[in-house]
């Protein structure tokens, strides 16, 4: 129950950060391509890579619940990604739809890998 | 030559404009606070459901494959596709912008997660389960997109039923 509260708290922060950043990027770059969602998802993947290296999930469940499950879980989103990809496809923008899928997946996986590597550089051998 | 009447009226105009600007900026702040609070509230519910799904999945099927994350991402994609079309411009159901923010940006955004998907794929790959990692990517992307499309199509059908608003 205590951990679910931490998920709630982290989730509120993460979701507001997502709302702010995706809106900010969309207003700056325009909304022909969902850059806002992508920036959020790639940065969130990088961050969870760092967290995964820094926080031992089993021995620090409270921090994990707050930072990983709550904050970063609610910060990143699949639903907006899916909806925006569908919208591009429905407009006949197949190249952009496909590009969004490939870029999102590759950049996010690259982000989490880099984050994990950055974690080992910053923190050393990592949490046990 | 300065005209005192014009000056005075100009002064009043400035004061009125300042007052109006303050009122508008206060309203904007108030509106922003409401939107952020709404998004946060929806996301809290979605996030807790996701955490519970993840726990249940681990309890039922262990840590071999991240079914919990896959499930919430499919459900969230379906729901956002369904809701967006059902409450959209040609939709059958009216929803206020705040209600849409609550459900789509908040609830569905909190329920689904790209970060856990990325991390779990990396973990599978790091533990040598390259096949499972590749499968997770392929199955996830295909099922997310199928789910959002299915939700959308279902809502389009509902919108076309007799007895809708139009």
UniProtKB/TrEMBL annotation, chain B:
Protein keywords: Cell inner membrane, Cell membrane, Ion channel, Ion transport, Membrane, Metal-binding, Sodium, Transmembrane, Transmembrane helix, Transport
Compartment annotation: Cell membrane
Pfam families: CRCB
The UniProt record lists the keyword NADP: no
Membrane topology classification: Multi-pass membrane protein
UniProt KW Oxidoreductase keyword: no
Domain of life: Bacteria
Modulation of this protein's activity: Na(+) is not transported, but it plays an essential structural role and its presence is essential for fluoride channel function.
Reaction equations catalysed: fluoride(in) = fluoride(out)
Binding site for Na(+): 109, 112
Regions crossing the membrane: 32-53, 65-86, 98-119, 131-156
Main localization (coarse): membrane
Coiled coil: none
Biological processes, Gene Ontology terms: cellular detoxification of fluoride
GO molecular function, one term: metal ion binding
InterPro entries in the record: FluC
Role according to the record: Fluoride-specific ion channel. Important for reducing fluoride concentration in the cell, thus reducing its toxicity.
Family matches, as NCBIfam families: crcB, PRK14206.1
Family: Belongs to the fluoride channel Fluc/FEX (TC 1.A.43) family.
Protein name, entry field: Fluoride-specific ion channel FluC
Species, as recorded: Mesorhizobium temperatum
Lineage, top ranks: Bacteria, Pseudomonadati, Pseudomonadota, Alphaproteobacteria, Hyphomicrobiales
Gene name of the record: fluC
């Amino acid at each position: 129950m205590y951990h679910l509260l931490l998920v709630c708290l982290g989730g509120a922060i993460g979701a507001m950060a997502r709302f702010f950043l995706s809106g900010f990027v969309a207003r700056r770059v325009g909304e022909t391509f969902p850059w806002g969602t992508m920036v959020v998802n790639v940065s969130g993947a990088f961050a969870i890579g760092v967290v995964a290296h820094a926080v031992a999930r089993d021995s620090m469940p409270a921090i994990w619940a707050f930072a990983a499950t709550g904050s970063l879980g609610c910060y990143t989103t699949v639903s907006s990604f899916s909806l925006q990809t569908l919208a591009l496809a429905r407009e006949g923008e197949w190249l952009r739809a496909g590009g969004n899928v490939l870029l999102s997946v590759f950049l996010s996986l690259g982000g989490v890998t880099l984050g994990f590597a950055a974690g080992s550089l910053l923190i050393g051998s990592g949490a046990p | 030559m300065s005209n005192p009447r014009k000056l005075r009226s100009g002064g009043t105009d400035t004061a009125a404009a300042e007052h109006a600007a303050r009122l508008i900026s206060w309203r904007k702040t108030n509106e922003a606070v409401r939107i952020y609070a709404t998004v946060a509230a929806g996301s809290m519910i979605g996030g807790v459901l996701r955490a519970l799904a993840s726990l249940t999945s681990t309890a039922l099927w262990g840590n071999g494959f991240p079914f919990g994350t896959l499930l919430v991402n499919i459900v969230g994609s379906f729901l956002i596709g369904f809701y967006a079309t059902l409450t959209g411009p040609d939709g059958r159901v009216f929803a206020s912008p705040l209600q849409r923010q609550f459900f789509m940006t908040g609830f569905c955004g909190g329920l689904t997660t790209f970060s856990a998907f990325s991390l779990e794929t990396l973990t599978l790959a790091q533990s040598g389960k390259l096949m499972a990692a590749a499968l997770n990517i392929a199955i996830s992307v295909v099922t997310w997109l199928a789910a959002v499309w299915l939700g959308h199509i279902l809502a389009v059908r509902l919108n076309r039923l007799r007895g809708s608003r139009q």
